[in-house]
Amino acid sequence: MSLITALARLEAVRSGRAQPAATVRHRHLSERPLVLVPLTTAGEAGAPLGALVGTERDAPRLLVVPQPRDRDLRFAFLADLADIVLPCVDAYADAVETAERSETDPTTGKRVKVEVDLCADAPQIIVPSRAGIEFVRLLGRSMRFRRTAEQDPETAHPAPPRVPLLGRWLTHYGERARVPGSSLLLALTEVLTRHWATGQSSLEDQHLGALLAWIDPPDGGSGADAAVRAELARDADGQLLCPPAGPATDPAFDNKLLAPAIERYDRARTRFAAAEDGVEADDRFGELTAAEREIRALVASRTRPTWDAVWRGLDLLRALPEGEHVVDRWTRDRWSFTMHRDRVAAGEPPQPRRDDAVTAANKLATREREQARLEAQEALDDPLVMAGRRLAGEAFAGEVLDVVMTYSEGKRPSPRPLVTLRTEDRPHLGERTKVYRSLNGKPQAAEFVGYEGTEGSAGPGGDGADVLVVLRVLDKMGRGKEPEAGSVPEKGDRLCFTLFEHEQRGGAKLPDPEETPWTHGGPPGEADATAYPDPVTEEDLL
Amino acid sequence: MTTLYAPDGDRGRAFDPGAEATRATEAILRDTLHGTHRGVVVDSPPGAGKSTLVVRAALELAAAGRPLMVIAQTNAQVDDLVLRLAEKNPDLPVGRLHSSDPDPYDKALDALPNVRKSAKAGDLAGLDVVISTAAKWAHVKGVEPWRHAIVDEAYQMRSDALLAVAGLFERALFVGDPGQLDPFAIVGAEQWAGLSYDPSASAVSTLLAHNPELPQHRLPVSWRLPASAAPLVSDAFYPYTRFRSGTDHGDRRLAFAVASDGSGPDRVIDEAAETGWGLLELPARHTPRTDPEAVRAVAQVVRRLLDRGGAATSERSAEPVALTADRIAVGTAHRDQAAAVRAALADLGVPEVTVDTANRLQGREFDVTVVLHPLSGRPDATAFHLETGRLCVLASRHRHACIVVCRAGVTRLLDDHPSTEPVQLGVTVKFPDGWEAMMSTWDQWSEHRVPWRP
C-alpha cells in the first residue's frame, strides 16, 4: 500500500466516510452498459442459478435455472442469456468507422498503412465484483467448445445454436478484463475502490454493499456503521438484509430458502411427469409452475438489491469527470472488440484452452506495457494520483527559479537549457536520471544535473526544507539553434516532472508460433490446437 | 591455497577448493565445446567465479573458430564482460551491440581498439564475439543464426525474453545463480502458472522443462564468501547444491585501529569483525518502511566502520588493505529505504557508500555490507518480503563481514505469518521457501546479536 493510500484509509477510519482516491474517473463508462448480476449454485463450479441482466435500469431481465443441476435447464438459461447479450454485441459490431493500422506487407515485408474498420463503440459489461468476472470467464470456457446440432449432428447433448458463440464472446471479455486499464468488462467494486479509499480492509471492500455504505452512507450517517450493517445485519428469519453481490449466495439462504424450494420443484416435476391423464397433468403443471415461480421470486429477491446497488455505484462514478486519457484506452478496447469480431466473422475456431508459448508471452508483454501506460496516464490525468507518486519520490513539482541557456557540443549545437526548480518533494534522483514533463500532451525529457547548493547528486538531508533541482532540458525544442517558442520553461512557471516515462515503447516482435524455438518445446503440436469440449462424464448427467 | 576438510560424510578427504573448481570448469568446457547437447546449464552460487567462467568459455569458443553471441541482462553486465574479455585477450575482435539511446555503453569501451560498437547487428557481422543485452538482441531479425551463445544470469532472465532470442543461436551455455532473485512480472501471470513455458518463469526453468536431458553443472566453491558465511548461505539457500568457501577460517581478518566506544554500533562491528556476522537488534516496534531509528542505526554503523580505521587482510594481498567507503555497501528491500539511508548518510557526511536494493546489488561484491533486514518493523510478512532470493542477495555480497540491522520480533512475525501462497499445479515447489530461509538465517544471526536501544 502506498503512503498516500494508507493516509486516505486512516482519514476514512477517522471520519467514518470513504475518502477520494482520485479526482477524475479513470475508467470508461458506456452510456448504456450491459449490467450482469449472476448467481451460482453452491457446490458446483459454473452452475448458474440465475441472473439479472439488461441495459435498462428499470427493466432488468430475470433468468432463473429452477434446478441448477439439470443440463437442459442450464442450456435454456444460457440460450436466453445469448439472446440478450448477442444482439447487444451485434448492434455495436455493425457501426464502424474507418481507421488506419500498420501491417506487415506479406510480399515486401515492409510496414504499410492499411485502412480497416474500427467499431465506433463497443458494448460494455458491468458485473458487481471480481468474482463476477471469474464467473464470466468460467461461463465462457464452459460454452465455447460446445457443439450445436448443426455443427455436429452426432453430438449427444447439442447446445442451443448461439451458445458456443456467446462462450467465445464471454471468453474474450474475460481475457480482456486482465489487461490493466481496459473497460470492456468491469467489476464495479474494483472501479469504486480505485476512486475511493475506505476504512476497511481490501478484502471487505469486495462486498459491494459495504463498499457503497462507506462511500455514500444512507442519510449521511457513519459509513463505518452502515458497512457493518450491510455486511452482517439479518432479519428475523436469519436472512441477510443486504444479500452478497454474488455470484456465491449466502449459506443461510441456500439452506433455509433455496434448498426447500428446489426440492418442492423437483417433487412437482416428478409428479407432473407421472401424470396419467390430461386433467391431472393440467393440475400438476399448475403446481410445477407455482414451484418455479417461487424459485424465480427467491432469485429476484437476492439479485435485485445488487442490481440497484450496481446502478447506484455507476451514478457515483458518473458524477466524476472523465480523465483525459480514458478515451485513448477505450479506443484500445474498441480495437480489441473489433478484432475479435473479425476473428469470429472469419470463421476462426474458438480460443484454445491454453495459450501457446508465443501467445502467452505476447499477452504478458501487452499487459505489462498497458500497466505502465495506465500508471503514467492516471498520474498525468489526476493531481491526486500524481501527489501519491510525488510522495513516493517518483515525481516532483515546483517553481522555476532560473533558466540558463547552454548548448550541446558538436558540429550543430542544439539548445540544452539548464533549469533550476525549487521543490518541496524528495524525488529519488541519481546521476543523469531522466525526467519528463508534459508539454502540450507530449513528454519533454530532461536530465538531472545536480542539487544547487550541495555538491553533485548527493542529495539533500532528511529535513523538510525546499531543495533546488537543476535539470538539463534535452528535446522537443525544434531543430534550430534557438529553441522554438514555448518549448523551454520560463522563470516563474510551475512544473511537474516525473521519473517515469509517459509513453510506452513497443517491445520486440516475438517469433510466430510455428517458429517456436527448441528452448520452448518447438512449434505447438496440431493435437493441442484442435478444440474439443471436455469429455462428458457420468457425474455431468443426472 | 589452503586445504580444507570437507564436513561430515566426506570427513578425512582433503578438500582442495582450487582443484575442485578447476575440475568443475573443465567438465563444463568439455560439454560446451565437445558435447552433443544443444544446451549446457551451469548453476553458480554467489562469488563462485561465474564471470571468470563466462570469459574463459567465450575465449575458448572464439579460439575454436565458433562465432559466438553473448546475452547478458543489463548494459552494466555487458560492458563489464567486454572489459574483462579485452583484458584477457586484447586482440580478440569483439562487437558491442547497443541501443540507439544516448550514452548506450560505458565510455571505457572507446579506449579498446578491437571492440567495435554499433546499434546494428549487421555492422558487427563476422566478429568473433558479439555481446549485448537480451532486450537488444530481441530486436535483431533476419540474420544467420550464431553457432554458439552464452546466456549470462540465465536465472534472472525471463522465459519470454529467451523466447525472443532463442532463434538467434544453435547451441548455448546457460550460466546463472539459482539462489538469487527470480525474475518478476508487474502484472499477474497466474493464468500460465504450471505451463512449461510460463512466460513469467525463469529462462532456465522453461529450458529444462522442455529439455530435461541437458547436462547440468555447478561451481562448487565461493571465492567471495568467507569461511564464516559460506555454510550459512549454503545451508539456508542451497541445501541440495552445497558449496564451500575457497578460503579457510583465519585467512581473512578485519581489524580496527580505533577501539570500541562501547556503543551498539561499535559492539556489533566488533562482533562482525570477529565472527563474520553481526546482528544489531533494535527494540520491537511496528514502523513505517523508512523506520527512522533503524535507518539512522544503519548510517551510524557505516559511519563508525569508516571512523574506526578498518583494515582488511585477505589472500589477495600480503598487506592489510584499508576499509574505505567504496568497499562498504548498504542493502535494503525497498527503494525508499535506500533513499532514506542515503539521506541519513549524507547527514552524517558519508556520501560515497553504495546504498541500493537487493535487485541492484545483484552480482556486486564488497568487503563489508550492512543490511536492513526485510522484515524489520513490519506488521506482516508478504511474499515480497519473504522472497528467498532477496535475502540471499543481501546476505552474500561480502568478503569479510555482514552486519544485519533489524527490530526484535522476527520469529514472532514469522510464526504469525506462515507461507500462504497458493499451490499451483505443475509448478515445481521451490525449497527452501522464503519462510524457512528467513527462520534459519535468523536462528544463526541470533547468536551474533547485539541488542541496542538508540
Could you tell me the CATH topology label of the domain at 379-498 in chain A. Elongation Factor Tu (Ef-tu), domain 3
Specify the structural class of chain A.
alpha+beta
Which two chains form the greatest contact, residue counts included?
Answer: A-B, 41 and 45 residues
Number of strands of chain A: 15
Q: Report the major sheet of chain B.
A: 8 strands, parallel
How much of the sequence lies in strands of chain A comes to: 15-25%
Number of H- or I-type helical stretches of chain B: 15
Pfam families (chain B): AAA_12 (PF13087), AAA_30 (PF13604)
Keywords (chain B): ATP-binding, Helicase, Hydrolase, Nucleotide-binding
Protein name (chain B): AAA family ATPase
What features would you highlight for this structure?
heterodimer, A: 542 residues, alpha+beta, Elongation Factor Tu (Ef-tu), domain 3, six-stranded antiparallel beta sheet, 15 strands, 17% strand, B: six-stranded parallel beta sheet
What does this molecule look like?
The complex is a heterodimer of chains A (542) and B (454). Chain A is α+β, with helices and mostly antiparallel strands and 542 residues long. Chain A has a domain at 379-498: Elongation Factor Tu (Ef-tu), domain 3. Chain A has 13 helices and 15 strands. In chain A, the strands form four sheets. Chain A has a six-stranded antiparallel sheet with strand order 12-13-14-11-10-15. In chain A, strands 4-3-2-7-8 form a five-stranded mixed sheet, sandwiched between helices. In chain A, α4 packs antiparallel against α10 (326-345). The model of chain A has no long low-confidence stretch (mean pLDDT 90). With 454 residues, chain B is α/β, with parallel strands linked by helices. Helices cover 33% and strands 20% of the residues of chain B. Chain B has helices spanning 17-34, 50-63, 75-88, 134-137, 159-165, 203-210, 230-237, 264-275, 292-307, 335-347, 358-361, 383-386, 388-394, 410-416, 434-446, and strands at residues 4-5, 14-15, 39-43, 68-72, 94-97, 115-118, 129-133, 146-151, 169-176, 216-218, 221-222, 244-245, 253-256, 277-282, 310-313, 321-322, 328-332, 354-357, 366-372, 398-407, 449-451. In chain B, α10 links the parallel β17 (328-332) and β18 (354-357). In chain B, α1 packs parallel to α2 and α2 (50-63) crosses α3. The longest helix of chain B has 18 residues, at 17-34. The model of chain B is unreliable at 1-12 (pLDDT under 50). The chains are: A alpha+beta (542), B alpha/beta (454). At the A-B interface, α11 of A face α5, α6 and α10 of B.
